[in-house]
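Appendix B, Record 12. Input sequence as logged:
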Amino acid sequence: MKVSQFFDNTLLNKYNTSGPRYTSYPTALEFHDDFTHDDFINAIENSQNRELSLYVHIPFCHTLCYYCGCNKVITRHRDKADTYLEYLAQEIALQAPLFKDYTVKQLHWGGGTPSFLTHSQITKLVSLLKEKFNFSDNVEMSIEIDPREIEMGLAEHLYSLGFNRLSLGVQDLDLKVQQAINRVQSTEFIGDFIAHAKAVGFKSINIDLIYGLPHQTLDNFTKTLVKAHEWDVERISLFSYAHLPSRFAAQRKLRDEWLPNVEEKFALMKLAIETLCDLGYDFIGMDHFAKPNDELAIAQNNGSLHRNFQGYTTGGDCDLLGLGVSSISSIGNSFSQNIKDLKEYYQAITEKQHALIKGVSLSKDDILRGEVIQELMCNLYLDKHMINEKYRINFDEYFAEDLPLLTSFIDDGLLENNENYIKVAQKARLLIRIICMSFDAYMKKHINQQRFSRVI
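Logged structural output:
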């Protein structure tokens, strides 16, 4: 793969507009409060799947990172986690019987900061989940960690409970950048913890990095990328910082003049992709990197890569149940989301016996378009004959109003469209979100709204 092909400045500038990340289709903007808990139960009963991925949201963080747009609660009072776990236990007890016929193949804890929990709290929650749900013997268990507030022994504790994947929020290693975003951390400790976790037995470790942060330069971001390689992590997630201070109050602490301009941010992205590929990582989708022998890389190579609310994944065959405040589920032909406010979440668990607040039941058109977008997002390729046979349609006739939207991409050499397939050129990989918008039936009503981040 020639990395240089991703960076045609003229094309990237032409198409660098805002668009969904397509972790679902329809996107969360289409979720509505007419979707009820009865609809959720109906989705379970009618799902053809009996394998489950569990997502548990732990909303607490010790300190506020100014760039963050996640749903979180900033506190240093660990007793708040005790209260939360009590209500989470109630939700688990209420939900688990609905999934008694399912086998859990994946478990992921996100946040917030799941490592906010004490060892005993982590143990209690894992034990409860394993008691209430049917876990596979070879279940994949992953957890997100903030390296600023942990001790070395956390690795042993997590591994003893069955966790086999770790994801560390690193973002950037330069002190000036860290000070600006209110996230100062020890590079030495992070490296020592990763080495220790590998020695304990963890086979897969991911780190998150962000480009476009205040005071980032090509020089200091290069040092971050090289250090990540020295740590020998299996996966790296590279995200573009989306500066939306009108939506996220904490971002107002980041002055505009501190941020890289469009050209500088583009150069940072280019640097990261070139550096990581040169260091031997495979470029996964549009924002992940993995060693060639990693399951993500293997999935991309054999066409089984999937995308959900956690990003690119290998668990595409599982229904997804989200537990905890703000978590999202994908069950059968439906998406749904829990209440985002903590107090309202507690109240709903007590009074309604569930925390669901909105969702959407998928129409046949949603399912079809969702698969088209999924194939393009993950594989940069769509087999029209496969779609025709599966959905009993004629692709070109069904999408007659959408296909003309591809003309500009075709003229620019970004994709090929014929009677058999749609194939996206490698040089269009960074623009895949914009290409997929051509098949998004809901996009017209959002086209003039700043509801999405820019591609670059």
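The chain has a mean pLDDT of 93.
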